[in-house]
């Protein structure tokens, strides 16, 4: 029963956060969206008027320019009313309407950006970019944690003072270095001076050509290496810390006394008991890289969501910004939720801790 | 007290390093505040302030490394009026010539990237004429510019327009030049100021007369690559160059007010310059106080809020406490980076807004830590005893729980400074920085916008990021030491 309550509580919090974020986004961008829509309507009305009428009709239909303007305004008002744009963006009805549209993934069209196929639908755009973001950040986070577990548990068994200090120092260093600045340095070193990797990570060949995936992987190499380099020291440090704490526990010490080889203790018992903390580490790593992805993708020009987000901000493409905020928040909250779920399965103590 | 601190630091070497890094930053801060007045600090984004500086110049000490490869990059050279050798000739009574000669011993293997000659002349009744010529080490004399200022004062707009257009065509990225009209005519004192660029059309046209002196085609070469070139092949000719600025004046009121001869270099200053000709060391200096201000303000405020929020929610417990924890949970589940960007889109570009934002999302984590502690301390026997003695909740919190938490709070304070500094840098990098407070993040944004990492301008990228890292590092090291000290004391 407690586990269901625990999960329910988490879900409620996540939904609250999602709603708050989206409401805030609507509050901040709502007025601009309305303005864009009204502008579109105005253009449509004027265009349809001048297209549908021949020269002579244009002259005959209206006595003067004033009348023509009046007619146009009327048409615009009519359309605005039918779309509910006459109400200010902060009217509750309107907000609920917009919120509903967002939650049902009715995100509209981007103003400036198109997919490779030429579609400007926000959904299509995100569908195109999302896999790239997941590919880069999941693989690199897994690599960071994997490296951490292998090297960290190795170092936990033999506590050498020099390597310990070195790793601790490196971990502090990697926490204080801005990852996006490090990315710029990596580009200077590997693309400008050594010329091993391309500076721009978007493959030059189109996505439907045969060698695309290989090219994508080649272009991914530099961002991947960068993220791993930034994360690995802290990862090793924490794994070592976690495992050392588990090893100190009495039940592990007992295993050593009854003659089970240390290697087996480490792999079979210590790692298993450290799994909740290790999972947390992976989750926190994923979550923190997700926020940083906006900067890192932009610097490497990796064709992912973060890069799209950055460019949408530069161009002030409100529909796209709203869509991306929604997906980013969703992705972030989903990661957190999976993490919480995994933790409560791995470590039953967590569920009751709060109460 | 001081002895105790020294003792503490001795046992934590990281802490010593942290404190010395912090000291370094504080020294820079004081140096900046004393030596660079606020008015000058705001010149960072003003292109005309930096017009006499070279563009994309590396730090001068790169030449020490280049010497290992037997190369040397040209240095930035500014000749002022004091460096000029002035000779006056007068021919007859109706006109006289004033020659200002600058001598430049050019001994670099590469061409200078550009040169420019800003000058201002007080014009009398009759407009004077200006001639600029170069006497090269091989004896050749090039007249690179001739203009009677009559045409300047008559067709001011005309010349100006042509000049500017030419700038844009020849360089393609004349951001600074085109913003500053090359000709300024001050009517009141009748002083004509002009800035002549090596890329201007007049110079290029004048140089086309000397094409036959060279064994190679000078077509399309920029002026500096012709003037400083040997005649056999297009490599720099080393030796003494004489730049002669001649002013032909026809009345007594005409006078050369000011002149500079700027031969741009590829190395300049301790840290070089950026694409907008700004001195990077200047940016590094003025960024220090801002970073410290943001970091410390945010950290102090969010530590205090976090301390009391955590205390109250932990001490109260029950339903109120639970509700307070849920609020913390909500804050901690927010995707901060995305939210920061959304908020900055509307309210950004103000330093106060940024500080408020980091405080708003900085305290919940600290509150959670403090809550855990206060739950522990609440159940200590002496707290329960004082409760039985009838002390008020407020007194118990202030007298018994807060003192226990102070060591950890100090550590938390130090550890939350880097978050604010890194956050400000990231948001500045995204373009939400406060333009009236130039920061390191904004420098990196400019660098990224100018594709500095692809063009290899490492001197533009490394220093700001290094300063961000040093500042974060200092506080992390101090925080870690304080933390382990607090843990050690607690165990005792």
Number of strands of chain B: 11
- Mean pLDDT across residues of chain A: 82
Low-confidence stretches of chain B: 154-187
Low-confidence residue ranges of chain A: none
Give the averaged pLDDT of chain B, no decimals: 82
Biggest sheet layout of chain B: 6 strands, antiparallel
Q: How many E-type strands of chain A?
A: 0
Considering residues with a beta carbon less than 8 A from a beta carbon on another chain, report the largest interface and each chain's count: A-B, 47 and 47 residues
Task: Describe the sheet with the most strands of chain A.
Answer: none
Q: Structural class per helix/strand content of chain B?
A: alpha+beta
The gyration radius over C-alpha positions of chain A equals: 28 Å
What's the tally of helices of chain A? 13
Shape field of chain A? elongated
Percentage beta strand of chain B = 15-25%
Structural class of chain A, by secondary structure, is mainly alpha
Radius of gyration of chain B: 32 Å
Description of the structure:
The complex is a heterodimer of chains A (355) and B (492). The longest helix of chain A is centred in the first third of the chain and has 51 residues, at 2-52. In chain A, 34% of the residues are buried. Chain A is built from 13 helices and no strands. Chain A is elongated, with a radius of gyration of 28 Å. Chain A starts with a helix and ends with a helix. Chain A is mainly alpha-helical and 355 residues long. Chain A has helices spanning 2-52, 55-61, 65-83, 92-103, 122-157, 161-176, 179-193, 212-248, 250-257, 262-300, 305-315, 318-346, 349-353. Chain B has 492 residues and is an alpha+beta fold. In chain B, 54% of the residues lie in helices and 15% in strands. Chain B contains 18 helices and eleven strands. Chain B has helices spanning 2-11, 13-35, 38-41, 62-66, 149-154, 156-171, 175-179, 201-207, 223-227, 280-316, 318-333, 336-347, 351-378, 381-388, 393-429, 440-449, 452-455, 458-491, and strands at residues 77-79, 85-91, 95-106, 115-122, 129-135, 141-148, 183-186, 191-197, 239-249, 255-259, 261-263. In chain B, strands 1, 4, 7, 8, 10 and 11 form a six-stranded antiparallel sheet that branches. In chain B, a hairpin with a 5-residue loop joins strand 5 and strand 6 (141-148). In chain B, helix 13 (351-378) runs antiparallel to helix 15. Chain B is elongated. In chain B, 40% of the residues are buried. Classes of the chains: A mainly alpha (355), B alpha+beta (492). The interface between A and B is large, with 47 and 47 residues.
